[in-house]
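Reminder: ligand-aware prediction takes two inputs, not one.
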Amino acid sequence: MALLLIVPISLVTLWLGYTLYQRLRFKLPPGPRPWPVVGNLYDIKPVRFRCFAEWAQSYGPIISVWFGSTLNVIVSNSELAKEVLKEHDQQLADRHRSRSAAKFSRDGKDLIWADYGPHYVKVRKVCTLELFTPKRLESLRPIREDEVTTMVESVYNHCTTTGNLGKAILVRKHLGSVAFNNITRLAFGKRFVNSEGVMDEQGVEFKAIVENGLKLGASLAMAEHIPWLRWMFPLEEGAFAKHGARRDRLTRAIMTEHTEARKKSGGAKQHFVDALLTLQDKYDLSEDTIIGLLWDMITAGMDTTAISVEWAMAELIRNPRVQQKVQEELDRVIGLERVMTEADFSSLPYLQCVIKEAMRLHPPTPLMLPHRANANVKVGVPTREVP
Ligand code: HEM
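Here is what comes back for the chain with protoporphyrin IX containing FE:
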């Protein structure tokens, strides 16, 4: 009997010893005391970035927080942010890919989940020199303005419909539609919804893929932090493979449509599918990377924009004085005879301040996308280590 106990006890002691050694080996930033196995998971309050801000008040601007057995270092002032994102950029720009992120991104063949290295540098170059150039963004401006005008019309129609007069309106629904149509037109060069608001077959499939992706990604969240407990939460290999195949099938069908349209017309359009397909040879982009990049834009650009505007609207409603000042500025600069365009932004300083303040109060990605260290990096004064 005693012999039977020796093996598990030795294993646990070894594991505890190794964990302790890891924690003492480095001069880690201070932080709340972690519990064995779960670390600080049970101390983290629901609005995570507010909880970290509270801890920063007690422990300083650089803190250690343990998600299970994974160390997270959080910096919360601009000097440290500059050190982390600019000075040590190359050592701190890898990604921690959860098992689902690794599946979705084919192990970082896209941009969001790519580690720092030749692939990342190449794909960032494609984004800065080709996709997000002022020229391309300007030529895509009609899409954005068209979608915003359509939204204003649909809000107007909704509010003036008999029975809706004086009733509350679900702003999120309208913002969600603009974000959806904007991003699908930008990335896929397609509007899946017709002028009557009816979604076509590809659109329905697209939406189902987005929803299924969210469901699959969320299902593993807890198990990710305690690696040795993962056997209890096995990855649904079949479901991920099916999801990946479905996503590729739809994207390939859209890519083929665009390739055929280009052959017929002899010219490429400005949206990202055409851009990436015509740049494929120049930058040696694999099909996985093109599909990954297109879906990166969808996942990164849809909810972020809708959530930002929804919060800005909520803050305006909560602050009627500010709302009135925005309206006065719009009436003075734009007047009542025409619709505002993106070119007007530079003449609307108060509106710009309102947007920045709304994003400061309610950042849609307050903790950014965590970066992972690929080397032992020293930051801050007094020096702390990020292993
Ligand atoms: C209010 C709107 C948005 C916010 C707040 C936001 C915020 C962020 C943040 C915090 C990151 C992580 C940066 C990092 O890891 O250092 C990120 C990455 C990214 N975002 Fe956005 N984003 C917004 C809109 C968009 C849109 C509209 C697109 C595309 C059309 C987009 C595409 C991307 C991509 C591709 C990345 C990965 C960049 C990389 O890993 O180097 N985002 N975004």
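The pocket of protoporphyrin IX containing FE is lined by residues 111-112, 124, 296-297, 300-301, 304-305, 308, 364-365, 368-369 (CB under 6 Å). The beta strands are 62-67, 70-75, 94-95, 371-372, 377-379, 384-386. We will return to this case in the review session.
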